[in-house]
Amino acid sequence: MTKADQITDKILQVLSTNGRISNTDLAxxxxxxxxxxxxxxxxxxxxxxxxxxxxVLDAAALGRGFxxxxxxxxxxxxxxxxxxxxxxxxxSPEVVECHNVTGAVEYILRIACADLAAYKHFxxxxxxxxxxxxxxxxxxxxxxxxxxxx
Length: 150
What we know:
Blueprint: H1 6-17, H2 23-30, H3 34-46, E1 66-74, H4 79-90, E2 95-100, E3 107-113, H5 116-126, E4 133-140
Antiparallel strand pairs: 1-3, 1-4, 2-3
Helix pairs in contact: 1-2, 2-3
């Protein structure tokens, strides 16, 4: 692999903001020939540094504009309890991210749903019904002035 350098960093920065850019335009932006640029991008893909390309969707236009982060504490800290929680939560379409974290709680979830009523249903009828869940703290997103997720 071409060792990490300023050109590789620039390739990654450009692709992270526009994964659909043509190789020719990318090469122009980073100061390489098209063939040299393509080789670098293919090597970054082969190494798994570039894991894929995806569309950025408008959650509000899809009826999922209500976003919240939820800190979830479990009543039992065993591996079995964590696995059961993760399996249950993976079936919930509202959950778009689930992170096992250190600190006062075991998990942080990012959920997206239609509105407050839909969130209340998820909070009470889904998350609140899981036997492993001991504590739920919700953080409702009011705006996202910086969000670099693709």
